[in-house]
Amino acid sequence: MLLKRLVAGAAIALGLSAAAEAGQTLDGVKSRGMLNCGVNVGVAGFSLPDSQGVWRGMDADLCRGVAAAVLGDPNKVRFVPLTAVQRFTALQSGEIDVLIRQTTLTMSRDTSLGLRMVAVNLYDGHGFMVRKDAGVTEPKGMDGMTICLSPGTTNELVTTDWFRANNLRFTPLLQERMQDNATALQAGRCDAIGTDATQLAALRSQFTTPANFVILPERFSKEPYGPVVRRDDQEWFDVVRWTLSAIIQAEELGVSSANLEAMKGSPNPEIRRLLGVDPVLGNALKLDPAWAHNTIKAIGNYGELFERHLGPKTPIGLERGLNRLWTEGGLMYSWPMR
Question: What pLDDT, on a 0 to 100 scale, did the predictor assign at position 8?
Fold first, then answer.
């Protein structure tokens, strides 16, 4: 049912906007002087307006990183908050230029929606958060529970599949906004929330009494998050892919927002290409030679980005785990930039 709804939305939306024509997105962003970036309606650590209305979080900063690469200014972003149901139609129709919104990269999404999954910026997995007083220590103890889920997500499917495979019952409470699910759990309208582990940690960090809720340790799926663009624009796909790769390579090379200017004097050819001393990478993307330099200056390298929004010193308090660099036992790995 979910896939049918998405495909139907794709068939309608693909004809709605000339902005989706091949090769037009980069030129459109430049001429407009503004990046339209789709983000979550509000999840701490990913995209959430602060008290001044400024969007904060990992996804919000990745939007700023793309704006810095293309326009030279990380502030030239229009953030478009989208629910899970709205997100793909907004991209298909041309309302946004790129979707950076906790979106799992899956085969069906990559092949049936007229969209293209770009690259992984976060490795995650589906889990459950339950009320501590329920006394549940493992998912098999959740038989008969009411579980808050967001429609149009892989989490809805993963939960249904897992309960069916284990011959267990549950009652879904479907709400588009994850914040509504968080409110329902705290109010006792559902017994658990099913979503990706990082989102569970982000939601719990904002609860009035976080200690009253437990995130079960088991993970039931692979949930690689990444930006999404329209399929018919390879040029723009390249810009978004290599901007993400640039901040990963920066961490691999020891380049950070703090030492950026000093590192421009390095004799290392990889660093010189990355920072635009050698303009070959910018030329390949039709961007300013300083495109990656501008991104790293604006948002830091990948490690800085993770630690600032999700790391152990934040209220969310996550270890990097699979999101460590490959040289440290993780999966984060930039493609060779040469």
Answer: 43
